[in-house]
Amino acid sequence: MENLNELRARCEACRACSLCQTRTNCVFGTGSETADVMFVGEAPGEKEDLSGVPFVGRAGQLLDRYLYAVDIPRESVYIANILKCRPPKNRDPLPEEEDACIGFLREQVKIIKPKVIVCLGRIAAMRLIKPDYKITKEHGEWVKKGDFLMTAVYHPAALLRDPNKKEEMLADMQKIKEKLAELSEG
Ligand code: URA
After folding, report:
1. Phi/psi of residue 95, each to 5°?
2. Mean pLDDT of each 10-residue bin along the chain, 186 residues long
């Protein structure tokens, strides 16, 4: 099996969909290769495309604040996206782009073997948990899928648009912290 560096190199050379023509950088993923928890967002935005690192823009800074608030060090988690290349003007990913890219995420999960996968927002939850996932109703609920426990929380960009959701986000992040503590005890 490939290691993460080999997989990253293959991802950086990928030309499976048209987003390769407009990307500055492929945004593969970042964090601990032995993380217990993996956070999965939708697709890189402008700052991520320019830097090659996921969640470094405004939404990413807000994610950092939640990780800090519940005492989960960012270096201890792994962060990636469904799409590794930025869609022009940050439009939603197209189904064919997700289909072309999802194999990289599957391989990342196989290599890292997290205990918990947290979808950041509706798009990731619809792809990874179930197609009709309702983020407003189902965020914070645990779903067992194969070897993983999965959940979804609001996308940090949604919290920037609607600060009323921030309390629920903090409660969900606290639940994630508790679940990780429980899993590492048992
Ligand atoms: N939004 C995402 O879904 N992913 C990023 O990496 C940045 C913003």
Report:
1. -55, -40
2. 95 98 98 98 98 98 98 97 97 97 98 98 98 98 95 98 97 98 88
Question: Which residue among 81, 108, 127 has the greatest number of ligand 1 atoms within 8 angstroms of its CB, and so is best to mutate?
Answer: 81
pTM for this structure? 0.97
For the Cβ of 39 lying below 6 angstroms from any atom of ligand 1, the answer is: no
Contact 121, 155 (CB under 8 A): yes
Residue nearest to atom 7 of ligand 1 (CA): 55
Asked if residue 177 lies in contact with residue 70, where contact means CB atoms within 8 angstroms, the answer is yes
Pocket lining: 49 vs ligand 1, CB cutoff 6 Å: no
* CB burial of residue 27 (10 Å; 0-12, 13-18, 19+): buried
